[in-house]
Amino acid sequence: MKQVSLPKNVHRVRRRLANGLSRWHFYAWRGGPRFWTDDKKVPEDKAFFHAFSEATARPKSADYMVPQMVDDFLSSSSMPQAKRSREDAKKWAWRFAQHFSTAPAAIFEDRRARGELNKWRAVWKHSPKQHDMAGTHAVRVLNWAVEEGLLSEHHCHKLRRLYEVDRSGVVWTRSDRDAINAIAPEWVQRILCVACETGLRPGDLIKLTRAAVENTPAGRRLRVRTNKRKKLAHIPITPVLAKVIDAIPTGQLLILTNASGAQLTEHRASEGLRQWRDKAGLNRDLRLQDCRGTAATRLLDAGLSLSEIANHMGWSIRNAANVIEHYARVSPDETDAVLVKLARAKGGAQ
Description:
This is Phage integrase family protein. This protein is mainly α. Helix content is 47%, strand content 9%. The strands form two sheets. It has a three-stranded antiparallel beta sheet with strand order 1-2-3. It has a three-stranded antiparallel beta sheet with strand order 4-5-6, with no helix packed on it. Helix 7 packs across helix 10, helix 11 (291-301) packs antiparallel against helix 12 (306-313) and helix 13 runs antiparallel to helix 14.
């Protein structure tokens, strides 16, 4: 019997499954698109060879232009799901396509293309954040093109970034919250309270419903699948948060609403808090997202470990500890108790 061999350049990777068995993943080339998965080390199925042919049949470089590559990416399943993320991807991908409108996509297989991409994003060097966004979204398109076999490679990985921000020291203190609660309408107070007690991002806050509340042997918790990380978060319901939840009018499903009792948008939730922050004369750097630092402290106080807090927030354990420590030092009324618990948590995390 004639021995079957793999096509030239096929890259084969063995993956071990949870049940102890193995599966083989086949890529058109090392770093190229995966086109087949099989239990056999050397597949004999004719469909395997057909799939390989399709994976390596790239468009002719002279015919496949950057705008077409961008258009294909924007029509693909690799586009982000969140509305804001999709809008950002479209905006920057089309700016990328417009600048390289007369260039074939294959130019990015040349090392010199990295310099051309840097020249393009330098248009926004006056705005480090936009400068980095331009590169991030262009590289996302190029990564997709390599994964789909439309490019063999590209040389724009790990572009130098200009925008650096550390907001770990920006937190809502007890005095900040008291200042808002003294003048703001109830719907704004509720937003600030729930954000500071849960640490959820605005996109998750506005979707919180009664259905997320679960009873536990020790009390109650919120069970939430977060938008950004798509992971389940189990958040203890503190006494302060319990008051907000228990005060929801009968028949209202959403935990947070706008002034009219209708569903909030991310923008309205953030903007509403910003307006009352300014009226209260608070630090203009404070944003709704900065409630996450306050929440980390609340969660430590509620009994979560540093690793659990870090996992929920999407932080490193070190960053979670630094944020909590900063909060404690700028909130004198809580310093001693929080720092004692933090020291114990650090010991358990080592």
